[in-house]
Each structure stands twice: as C-alpha cells, then as structure tokens.
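Page 47, continued from p. 46.
Same chain as before, 331 aa.
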Amino acid sequence: MRAMTLQAPGERLRLQRLPRPEPSPGQVLVAVDYCGVCRTDLHIVDGDLQPSAWPVTPGHEVIGRVASLAEADQSGLQAGQRVGVPWLGHSCGDCHWCESGRENLCTTAGFTGFSQPGGYAEFLCVDADYCFPLPDGLDGPQAAPLLCAGLIGYRSLRLAGEPLRRIGLYGFGAAAHLVAPIALSRGIEVCAFTRPGDTRRQAFARRLGCHWAGGTDEQPPQALDAALIFAPAGELVPLALGHLDRGGVVVCGGIHMSDIPGFGYDALWQERSIRSVANLTRADGEELLALAARLNLQSTVSLYPLEQANQALEDLRQGRFEGAAVLDIRG
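Result:
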C-alpha cells in the first residue's frame, strides 16, 4: 500500500510502499478514502510532539470504509460500512479516567497517526471501539476535518459551560470554522479573531455568519462569556482574558501551545478561569457526528492527492487556504 511516512522530526514525509496491515482481535481494517491535515501533524513534523518510535505515518481525520474485520469481531461493524477514525485510537478501559467516562485522560491511551499508524496511507488498522459509523449524508472530504478539528471545537464549546451569550474564536482555521456554525445554531453571538490585517480570513468568518471579525489587536464590541483559542500561541491567553466578562472562561483547544506569558491577578479576578482541552471521548464523537448530520455541517476544504502531503502541510503552516486541507487517498 502507499503511505506517506515521517522518518524523523524536521524531515519531509516520504512516499513508501508498505505491507497492507492485518487487523488484530478487536480491530478493523479501514480502507482510507480521505484524511484531513491537522495542525497536530505539523507539530509532529516539527518535533514539538515526539512519538515513542519512528518512523510514523501521520493522519487522524480519517474517512473510509471497513475493508475487513478480525475473526470473532463483536463490534457490530460491517464490511463496506462508512466510518470515521479520530485522534484518540485506544484507551485501557479499566483506569479511573476510563471508568469515569474520561477516557480522553487515560494514561495508556493510543493516538492515531502518532503512537499508532495513521491515515496518510491507503489502509490502517484501528480499534473497533474508536471507529465511528458515519450517519447518512455525512461523507466525503468535507467530513474528514470533523474527526479532529470539529471534535476539538465541539468539546471546547461544551467545556466553556452555559449559558453563553457571546464567544470569541481565536485563530479562524479548521476548528473555528466548524464550531462557529454550531454556536450560531444555538443563538450564540460569535466574534472571530485572526492575525492582525488578515482581512481574507475575517471576510471568511463573516460569510459563515460571525457577528464580528477582526485582528487580535482589536477589541470585540462587547465582553465575551468564553474565549476558545485554537491558535498555538500562548500570548493569546492573557489577551483573551482581557476580553472576558465576569465569570468568563478561556478554553485552550490545542494539544501544543507556546509558553503563556505572565499576567496580573486582576485579569483572572471576578471568577474568570482558564482550562485546556485534551483529546476527545467516544461520546463526543457520537454526539458531534449526529449533530453535524442534523445541521448539514460542511467543512470548507482544499483537496490534495496523497503524494502532495508535504505541500498541504506547508500551505497549512503559511495559512494559504481557508478552512481545512484534506488528502485524497483513493489514488
């Protein structure tokens, strides 16, 4: 099978021919049709996140079909069924975190495209428990970014609490452009923050229905109940705190972020808070996919063939597209 692999941090991905994997007990073999290109993939390429072993096949926003199942499979999945595969690919099921419904915090978790092979390949084996059946009408390249960008956006919004009158989205990329329509469908006003002067992304945010869009050097028209940060820039945290109303929360949605600079206690006073989002749970995935089908939630995507994964990553780094990049694996 064809796969784009990373041999070491800082290198370019290489196109290789690898043996087709075979599913172990509890796994299914997925024939990959599309795989989203996530900023986490960039962090792996750059060495910000270090897998335990090299080489690694990145990719954790997978849309595909069940190609085969292990013997005595009891998952209920069927050959040919359309499925999605997310970042969190395994949890132990027995620890305190798993037993309390917080499998995203499992200390022995496995991650697709990081600690186990990912979707920049024609086939991958995944735990059946972390292989989500796709609702009718939810398919194709537009569905791929839901499996991470959409899930992180959705979980970030949920962890922001209720009630929410007005939120800010910092870094208007893949996650923000998917969570914005969800928030708007709930009657929440959305303010979009981009790099100063990025009028193209600001216009994109307005086209999606955001009530206000501007640079991070600007003040929102009114104080926010929550600030969801998707850009990996720690300096946005104290800035976003300054945009919050009393009792507001800053939610950091990225798996990696640069250092947060110091700030005075007055920025946190009046019961403001800061929290992070780690991974996802299966409940998140099931809820979001059902919601996406109901809302007809569609990503804005730029499509690349598998062999152009390096170009897709560089275009993501440089902010050359709106929405998300997706690899077409079908060949």
